[in-house]
Amino acid sequence: MSDNRTWQARLIATSAPAAAIWIRVYVGVVFLTEGILKFTRPDALGAGRFDKAGIPAPGFFAPVDGVFEIVCGALILAGLVTRLAVVPMIVDMVGALLITKLPIVWGDAPLFARESGFGDFLHEARLDFAQLCGSVFLLLVGAGSWSVDARLTATARSAASH
Predict the structure, then answer these.
(1) Which tens digits make up the pLDDT trace of 109-154?
(2) CA distances from residue 117 to 53, 98, 121, 127, 144 in whole angstroms, order as listed
């Protein structure tokens, strides 16, 4: 087996049970819908929100983020190259926490002007934390046995044994 096949096999390999589909569905649906909403509600959830949060070039970064969320969300839902798909989403969630939620702690969050303190931070960051944890879980264990990744792995093993 070549080095190229080895890293590709590791990329789609999964040690997760079929129940991982519940994490994939949750994480994938949220990313997919949030990505779509960046385009259908640009003032509230796309470039307008990015601008209000102080993110530079919001007209560029909001659509780029939306495309990543749509594509990665769909890949996560299908369980196709799941480990690869969650990497940009982990970066996305860390960025969302640092840029939009962490300033709540000291009462300086443009998106949450009436909120301050650690309790408000935890409240507003709950979805970001859930998405981050779900994405890290999928990075560590893979898509699970009910996924395209698992099917591709089984097909590759079957072909290699013949």
Answers:
(1) 999 999 999 999 999 999 999 999 999 999 999 999 999 999 998 8
(2) 18, 15, 6, 18, 38
Burial category of 130 from C-beta neighbours within 10 Å (exposed 0-12, middle 13-18, buried 19 and up): middle
pTM value is 0.92
Helical spans, DSSP H, in the chain: 3-12, 21-40, 42-45, 47-53, 58-78, 82-96, 118-124, 126-141, 148-161
CA distance 94 to 98: 6
- Single-letter amino acid, residue 62: A
42-47 own/partner pairs: CB under 8 Å, 24+ apart: none
**Could you tell me if 11 and 83 are in contact, meaning their C-beta atoms sit under 8 angstroms apart?**
yes
Contact 148, 7 (CB under 8 A): no
Among 134, 36, 129, smallest CA distance to 76 is for 134
